[in-house]
Structure formats: C-alpha cells, structure tokens
Specification:
With about 400 residues, the protein is mainly α. It has 18 helices and 2 strands.
C-alpha cells in the first residue's frame, strides 16, 4: 500500500485525491485569482484559463472542492450577518424599552421638539471639528512614516471609518479606515493600521483617566447615597476594565520590542502565517512611537471640542449643566460606546447618560432626550462618510 508523505501533502496539490497520481506544485496567485472571481459570484473564463495554465484545473474534483469552499464562505457570511442583526436588535430593543417602559414617549418627543436648532447645528460643527482633529492626527502620523498624501484623502477615509463605526459593535468598524486609505490614497494597509492602532490604544487609557476624574468629581459634588446605583456601576466598571485591558494590549502589541511580540505571536498558527505583515505593522508602529506627545495633545484638543458638543446640545435644551461637567462626563459616558454588545453601544450609552445626568439633578425624561439628541447629532455628522464609498480611487 502506498502512503503520501506529510511534506508532499503540504507542498503540492493532488489533482485526483489518490496518493499515486501526478501532483503539481502549489501556486498561490492563480488560486487567489480564482477565489477572487468566486467572491464576485461567478467563475470567469480568464480565471479558469489561469488555473489550466498551471495544471491546477480538474473539472471532476477541483469544482467539488471550490463549491464546498464557496458554500462555507457563504455560510460564514450568513453567520456574521445574523450576528450583526442580533446585536442591532438588542440595541433597538434597549432604546425602545428605555423610552416606552421607563418613560413616556410623548414627554420625550415634547422635550426634543423644544430643542433650539441653532445650538444643535453648532454642536454638529463641534463634532465635525473633532473629525478634523482625528483625521489630522492620522494624516500627521502617516507623514511621519514617509507618506506624502493629501489631507482631504485622509479626511474622507476617516469619515468613512466613523460612519461604519456607528453601526458596528464597540465602534470596531473604524478599523476599516485603512481600506479606504488604500483605495483612495494607495497607503499600505499595515502603515494605516499602525497609525490608528497604537493611538487608539493610548486614547482608551486616556479615556479611562478622564472617566476616573469624572467619578472623583461626582463623589465630591453629589450626595454619596446617589452613587449607589447598581445599574450605573454595573455598566461603567466593566467598561473601565475593558478599556484598560484593550488599551494596554494594543499599546503592547504596537510598541513593545519586536523580539517579544514576534516570539509571542509567531507561535500562534493563524497569526504566524501573517508574521511578515505583522512585522511590517510593527516597524511602522515603532516609528510613530516618538510622536506620543503630539498624540496626547491632539487627544486633549478632541476632548475639549467633544465637551463643547455636549455643552451646546445642553444649551439647546436649556440644561443647567456647566461646560466643565460635560467635559468630565464625556469620557465616562462614551466609554459605554465601546462595549461590544450592541452597535456603538446603542441603548447602553443612552441609559448610562440618563443615570449620570440624573445625579446632577436632570430628570430622566430630559436625560434620555439629551442622549438621543447626542446620538442623532453624531450619526447625522458622520453621514458625511458616505463620500468615502463613492470617492474616486487614486488609480482612476
């Protein structure tokens, strides 16, 4: 009886499923091209010809394997879609529950209807200023590692990432910004990820610092008996722990010496296969490490305008809350957007906002109205990100 060696199995493709038959050396490019055509839901004549030219086409066996692969890809896509729908429904149900069962919807609508539109628009401009600051940070860091690109390319890509972040759990969709940068500005994906990844990790840690400052302020400002709300702390404490862990891990992955990270991740089978791309990402990350002061300064500037956005929405509703209070509450409450249960913390952030404002003497009906206006203000501004989907590629 004949046996196939393990090495021959790894380094060749058997076109007939038997050990004694002729084998062909594995070629990545034609296989990738063929799978790319499958993703477009069709088998093109060119992709079949490409496989035949490398001796990789076997109508009786390869088609069966590809059909199984395509079915698996579709199944995985359905699972991801179903998972996203479930998370979105959880967020919608939470908002509906808060609005319908905790409060009177008519009262919420009445409060929102009294909003002064001028302040609401000014709040949107403040939020857009935050977009300008964050996109400039990305633009600045890309320049520091050698990219000579136009700022508006980065701005459009950033807005696209922000828009996707509004509909993804934990705002994780923003990590797709490199996809837009690659298409619009031909920025290498590993460089773009490096300029987003480490600053985001540092931002998480700074946000935790701001949240702790807000907690200290609330303790000094509010009667201690009001701070025993279990629901509030059951959301905030896990969020603080999550951001600390994720932020620390992101900084460690990005900025620790290559010897440690390569030794750690090189042993993980899936990541080990992409170690070359990982090392490219590490190289870019370490090169931007010297810009930590600029990253912190831009984060603080963004925090200032974010507090201004909330203050202006408060002014639109005639809330008796100072700018300092909004400035401190912002990182404490927006942490809840990064809890990966619903898209961008939908429902979770709204309830947290309501409870936090109630500690400052704001009625819960007004608090939920404020939270909904903040969410609407963000989404309407981020809608500018639709331009990233239609912006012409640099190649065209």
């Amino acid at each position: 009886m004949k046996h196939c060696s393990q090495n021959s199995t790894k380094n060749s493709i058997n076109t007939d499923n038997t050990c004694g038959q002729h084998t062909h050396h594995f070629h990545f490019l034609p296989i990738i091209a063929f799978i790319a055509s499958l993703i477009k839901h069709r088998i093109t004549r060119e992709s079949v010809g490409l496989l035949k030219s490398h001796g990789l086409w076997d109508e009786h066996h390869l088609l069966i394997r590809i059909d199984s692969l395509y079915s698996a890809m579709r199944s995985a896509s359905y699972v991801k879609t179903a998972y996203f729908i479930i998370q979105a429904l959880i967020g919608v149900v939470l908002v509906a529950y808060i609005a319908a069962y905790k409060f009177e919807i008519d009262e919420i609508v009445s409060v929102i209807a009294k909003t002064e539109i001028t302040y609401f628009v000014l709040a949107a401009l403040s939020y857009f200023t935050l977009d300008l600051i964050l996109s400039y940070r990305l633009f600045y860091l890309l320049q520091q590692i050698g990219h000579r690109i136009e700022y508006h390319w980065v701005l459009v890509s950033h807005l696209g990432g922000m828009l996707i972040g509004d509909v993804t759990p934990g705002r994780s969709g923003y990590l797709l910004t490199p996809v837009f940068l690659k298409r619009i500005a031909e920025v290498r994906a590993s460089d773009a990820v490096a300029c987003i990844f480490a600053p985001q990790g540092l931002e998480f840690l700074l946000k935790v610092g701001g949240a702790l400052a807000a907690i200290v302020y609330l303790i000094s400002k509010v009667d201690i008996t009001y701070l025993t709300n279990v629901t509030l702390w059951s959301a905030i404490v896990p969020a603080i722990i999550l951001l600390l862990l994720v932020g620390g891990l992101m900084l460690g992955v990005a900025w620790l010496d290559e010897r440690y990270t390569e030794r750690l991740f090189g042993r993980i089978p899936l990541i080990g296969r992409f170690i070359e791309h990982f090392l490219s990402f590490k190289d870019s990350s370490i090169r931007i490490r010297k810009n930590i002061k600029m990253i912190v300064v831009l984060y603080m500037a963004g925090w200032v305008v974010s507090g201004l956005q909330w203050y202006l929405i408060g002014e639109a509703m005639n809330l008796p809350i100072t700018y300092l209070e909004f400035f401190l509450l912002h990182p404490l409450i927006t942490m809840l957007m990064f809890v990966p249960i619903t898209p961008a913390g939908l429902g979770i952030m709204e309830y947290g906002t309501t409870i936090a404002l109630s500690l400052l003497g704001i009625s819960q009906t007004t608090g939920i109205a404020f939270a909904l206006l903040v969410r609407a203000n963000m989404v309407l501004t981020d809608a500018l990100g639709i331009t990233a989907f239609v912006y012409p590629s640099k190649k065209t």
